[in-house]
UniProtKB/TrEMBL annotation:
<keyword id="KW-0238">DNA-binding</keyword>
<keyword id="KW-0804">Transcription</keyword>
<dbReference type="InterPro" id="IPR005119">
    <property type="entry name" value="LysR_subst-bd"/>
</dbReference>
<dbReference type="GO" id="GO:0003700">
    <property type="term" value="F:DNA-binding transcription factor activity"/>
</dbReference>
<comment type="similarity">
    <text>Belongs to the LysR transcriptional regulatory family.</text>
</comment>
<dbReference type="InterPro" id="IPR000847">
    <property type="entry name" value="LysR_HTH_N"/>
</dbReference>
<feature type="domain" description="HTH lysR-type">
    <location>
        <begin position="2"/>
        <end position="59"/>
    </location>
</feature>
<dbReference type="GO" id="GO:0032993">
    <property type="term" value="C:protein-DNA complex"/>
</dbReference>
<dbReference type="Pfam" id="PF00126">
    <property type="entry name" value="HTH_1"/>
</dbReference>
<dbReference type="GO" id="GO:0003677">
    <property type="term" value="F:DNA binding"/>
</dbReference>
<dbReference type="InterPro" id="IPR036388">
    <property type="entry name" value="WH-like_DNA-bd_sf"/>
</dbReference>
<protein>
    <submittedName>
        <fullName>LysR family transcriptional regulator</fullName>
    </submittedName>
</protein>
<dbReference type="Pfam" id="PF03466">
    <property type="entry name" value="LysR_substrate"/>
</dbReference>
<dbReference type="InterPro" id="IPR036390">
    <property type="entry name" value="WH_DNA-bd_sf"/>
</dbReference>
<keyword id="KW-0805">Transcription regulation</keyword>
Amino acid sequence: MLDEKQLRYFMKLYEVRSMHKAAEELYISQQGLSKSIQSLESDLRVKLFRRSVSGVIPTESGDYFYEESRHLLNSYMQARKNARLLAGGRVQLSFPFAVSQMHMMYPLCQEFNDTHEDIRLAWEALPDQECEHRILINKAFFAVLAKGDTPDTFDFREVGKDRMAVIPGKDLKDVQKLTLRNLDGKKIILHAGMQNMNRRFRTLCLEEGIHPQILATTGDYGFARYLHQEEGASILIPEHYRNEEKVIPVSGAQGELPVVMIRKKGFSPKDVYHTVEQWFFGKFDAMK
């Protein structure tokens, strides 16, 4: 049976590596914490820590159990939240998507919430890597973002296409058709939250022998605009991630940016998760 308190005690000791400090932060006695850890080790029949002059050091079993405990506790907290919502008639699911896909995902999530009385999507627009991290730690079950390079970690389905583009700097403002070759030697600013696009851009440049000057990778739009104005640098963004500014798309297959819906590898959606997945797949198919 899951003992939430015991898991939290173990995780705190693992994180601070000190019986005194962990007990202090948990507001319990060191003796009480020690008994809890001993009871857990007895149940598991493994040693989770070994003592040292500087505190406690996790064993290999302790390292493994910590990672599993994080996932277990996150799943438990989500299940408890859903059970409470279900008692009130509605289940809530976290659904992160990349900031670059706000134009597509915001109206779809709103439509889903408006048409489903028993399920509510708590959506968030996040950097690519944070979307992936939420799934890996079981804080979310699906995410939509530009395709990354971690096929062994996630199952994915392509749901659309975007395209790399630039807000042109002074040396590209007259370019009518942009290729990667046009960016050779040019000053470029990368958006810090769009790691998958940036990785694809860097990989393609390396393969083609193209050497842009990367002035900064930043999530501070004001700083990016400053470099754009003062240094004449171009800002690399997905084509759909624009306001009223002029952008020039990168032409050809090199400019394509596949958009995927991902889930943790091996996860088989059932019940409400299946409902959510199939609804979005239907919408994405209709948009192609």
